[in-house]
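Subject: sequence -> structure tokens, single chain

Hey, anyone have a minute? Need the predicted structure for the following. Not urgent.
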Amino acid sequence: MSSFQPQKVQVQIYDNIKEEEFLKDVYPHRLPVVLRGLDIGLCKDKWTLDYLCENGMNQEVKVHVSPTPQMDFLNKNFAYRTLTFSELVKRASQLKQTDFFADPEEKYYLRSLGNDTRKDVADIKKQFEKLADDIRFPKFFTDDQFFSSVFRIASQGMQLWTHYDIMDNALIQISGRKRAVLFSPRDATNLYLEGDKSKVLDIDNPDLTKYPNFANVTWYECNLQPGDVLFIPAMWFHNVISLEFGIAVNVFWRHLNASCYDSKDLYGNKDPVAASRAMQILDRALKTLEELPEEYKDFYARRMVTKIQNKAYSNDLV
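Reply:
Had a minute. Here:
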């Protein structure tokens, strides 16, 4: 392992900013920011363990269960298991289990789903009606722009892999502390992507022999406190560690015209329709290049890359 010392930027914190000020002065810059002091409702004070267990009741939820804190989507070191909501809250809040699936120190992570997982998006108002009135979403979007609201519960130490979403979202941290690390969309070429996820799992101690370009990333970091709201612009990569047992809600909204999005997207991570079409065309072009001898394939591939850079890259984005 090589010594890794990335260029670090602290995510800017805005204290007690009004929602209209955020939309006018901050939102257009398309940078992640922490908003502190927003009105998020009564959840920050009301959502104690007992209150959650009582109001989540015996509703069943599907959770990730992992023997280690760092979930690995490449080697699938986690399993999906079903628990009642109250049992999940109980287990996730403990460091060691008396009842467990595979290991007394296993970790739990909930990313809530829609009622019908094949066609419904997550919506706390539909899946957790008794809790929904306690939380207030920031007024950053109109009702018709709303896409989903995702309930998240994580054991202390749980780390979710680096990924991006194609919609803007606000991560409302309700209890517990989190460390969030973000990377600009311009760092996509340094993150070794597989779909919407980065194959660099251990971002603190990356294998730079295997992933040398990761040394070039710019690392945006913040520590979230209960009550904080992290604005994550679309396509910004993010990696989150729960420093304590934590409860959060993500709210996603469509900031582009609705026709830009895949109508079958339930998670906010399917590429926009035009982008998906462009990637399919690229795949066909690459397959066509295979018909050429190697030196010709290399020559025309370089011409294609140059053409894409000249026509589509922007010099004005962070």
